[in-house]
Write a structure and sequence with these properties.
Chains A, B: It comes from Microcebus murinus (Gray mouse lemur). The structure is a homodimer of 423-residue chains. Chain A is of the alpha+beta class and 423 residues long. Helices cover 43% and strands 22% of the residues of chain A.
């Protein structure tokens, strides 16, 4: 490889808002998106919320002259909505479906039916191994009282773990997608601290687009304005994140977002804004080489975010167990009612009441049973993530304590506790 | 590292048959297993079917003086049943839950409720990175008419992909567990071809134990004898598989199984036989170094097994879609009945019949709906695995064709087809 080697990557990301029958002007938007992607000729176009496989097939056909490779990530009842178009051949691909993704009885939210996932593509470009991830996490419907917070944190942890374990031999890691989290949110911090990914918006010196890099903005005619009321400039929940390992350096030369309309001033491609990044990968000069060994001071944010996530998942678990217990009582009540009805029927009295109450009693038992099973599974899923976090936390603390020797670890813990109390 | 470096690994694997209330002598077997593991002091003890977390906690406490680290992999409603005890610190851990795992309405089989998974531990031993996987795939209840075949093949593929993508920087890979597959079964071949793992039983020169290395044998008093009728010597469905990469060489010095009773001639630890392997990892002499580039002839079994798995998943998909369509009709029938009942009730006639038929109609709609959703999800899951297989098949064919140049690829395909027709 040449010493002045440099690889340019043009990347496009968009949450396409492609809900059949519900999303406005879907066909027209898909057509214009296809035209735009063909003209701009990105290296990679990563899309979310392409819920209809027909839309993917349409885009695949339309984009095939420019983008040789394409893949649609299938999961859940509806699908993950994720797909990717690449100018370069895809060497390998796989996906991971998140074990927690909302509640099946929250039909109006619908996330559970989608089977939210993270898709992985491995590309070989100019001798570099590039791991590209695309994802879409659970939506946030109410920021003040977010019943899905624990699920989103667990998803962020699974995403971080998936990237961590599958990218060990990659030279460059790229994650695009709709994380449904603001940059300061717990899940977002957890993801960045655990994987070491950098945020293109925060890193680039050349940003063009919406105020504060927001990807849902009030200027977009498809956005429900009430949802953005607490955020007059909009919110930034779609990301391009990246890192380079093993002697390479990656930087974001330019980052651009659409600004509430398509790049030709027409109606927007979606209710989200598109992200367009130009990344450069170079050989890493020694001073820019990311240090593989974190110093104790660098471990503190990791330890703190792991601890915070652990606590949040604990709260989610308590909630899940409460629902499991509650549905246990409902099952009990249903069984009691059924027993009473049987006694009533056996004695030959009140047949009509028995027949009328039969349906709700069976409903209570079956409905309660389904809810019980679901929340037991939820509690197990949260416990699993919590146990992994606990392990990671233990390892991070051990590493920090080892580095801080000869100061004894318990004393350090004590000091930390004292500081926390003082604050 | 010294040139004559050698690492010895003593590994224990057992499907513990630990179903609360159902498995005979569970407490006694767990106690004796704990005693045995403490005495033998393996590097790693990998267990399956530890369904009760209390059993895991009991073993954890009992084994803590010998095995410093332990982990229980939680998933599904009941759990994955997987756990691990390690003499060495666990550096990292994670797990992957299989997206397909039987049917929730097959309650008597129960696999769906378990959330079958693969657990991963990363250990650092003498400067080596060791990735240890433990898993348990869907049971085979009827070999002649196996309705779970497509699910097991999909699980084998997910397992193979998980190992492939997470072990790229590992020096040694070890997989133990109950695969519920015979060595010649499609899923088993797929797993071995895709990952390059070797079977300890087939590789070792020093095997002691049951006939043909079987891990479910008629001599075991807990085994249901009818199930083994077609196999008078038993079946081999539990495995120790391994490989070394990046300049190392791994061999199985000894492999031992129990033979229908515990090693002290008492009643067995489980209805499965335990596997005890002693593995050695050494620097790889050049001639033993596994070739990273497969020759065309070596690709043929991979291509053939990928093709076969692709076909099997296709059959599973057709079945899943048939069930989805059937349940669609059931929903339709339920809705029709409900409409008739409403009309009947509105006209003021046949109240009793209306009330009586209300429950089955609602039951048809809700039950049909649940079955429809489940099989749609199943079809999506199978399609996902099939698409990944298709991609892998394409890449393998391209690689073979490239290696066989200047012979044109289409001609080769034609020749292959001709040969297949001749046979």
């Amino acid at each position: 490889m040449k010493p002045n080697f440099s690889l340019r990557l043009k990347v496009f990301n968009l949450n396409c808002w492609g809900i059949p029958y519900l999303s406005k002007h879907r066909a027209d938007r898909m057509k214009r998106l296809g035209d735009f992607l063909n003209v701009e000729s990105f290296d990679l176009a990563l899309l979310e919320e392409v819920w209809s496989e027909q839309d993917f097939q349409y885009l695949r056909q339309k984009l095939s002259p420019t983008y040789r490779a394409a893949h649609y990530f299938r999961s859940g009842v509806i699908g993950s909505g994720l797909c990717v178009f690449s100018k370069h051949p895809i060497q390998e691909l796989t996906q991971h479906v998140y074990s927690l993704n909302g509640y099946p009885y929250m039909i109006h939210h619908g996330d559970w039916f989608c089977g939210k996932a993270v898709g992985l593509l491995v590309l070989h470009l100019s001798g570099l191994v590039l791991n590209v991830y695309v994802t879409h996490l659970h939506a946030e419907y109410n920021r003040q009282k977010d019943i899905y917070l624990a699920h989103r944190v667990a998803q962020a942890w699974e995403l971080a773990q998936f990237i961590h374990h599958t990218s060990k031999k990659a030279d460059v890691v790229l994650l695009c997608g709709d994380l449904n989290m603001h940059q300061e949110d717990l899940g977002c911090c957890l993801l960045k601290e655990w994987t070491g990914l950098h945020d293109a918006y925060l890193e680039t010196r050349d940003f063009k687009g919406s105020e504060e890099g927001n990807t849902m903005i009030p200027q977009n005619c498809y956005v429900t304005q009430q949802e953005l009321e607490p955020f007059p400039f909009g919110i930034r929940i779609d990301y391009v994140l990246y890192k380079a390992v093993s002697g390479f350096y990656i930087s974001c030369k330019t980052l651009e977002t659409t600004t509430g309309h398509d790049p030709h001033r027409g109606t927007p491609f979606s209710d989200h804004e598109a992200l367009m990044a130009t990344l450069y990968v170079r050989h890493s000069p020694p001073e820019q080489n990311p240090s593989p060994i974190q110093r104790p001071a660098e471990r503190s944010p990791l330890i703190s975010v792991l601890r915070e996530a652990w606590t949040e998942l604990g709260l989610g678990m308590a909630q899940a167990r409460w629902w499991a217990t509650f549905s246990g009582y409902v099952i009990g009540l249903g069984l009691l009612l059924l027993a009473l009805l049987c006694i009533l029927a056996a004695r030959g009295g009140a047949w009509e009441a028995a027949i009328l109450l039969w349906t709700p009693s069976v409903g209570l038992v079956l409905g309660g049973g389904a809810v019980y099973l679901f929340h037991m599974q939820e509690a197990k899923g949260l416990y699993r993530a919590q146990a992994e976090l606990q392990h990671a936390l233990g390892r991070a603390r051990e590493a920090r304590d080892l580095e801080l020797e000869p100061q004894p670890a318990p004393l350090l813990e004590q000091q930390e506790g004292d500081r926390a109390e003082e604050q």
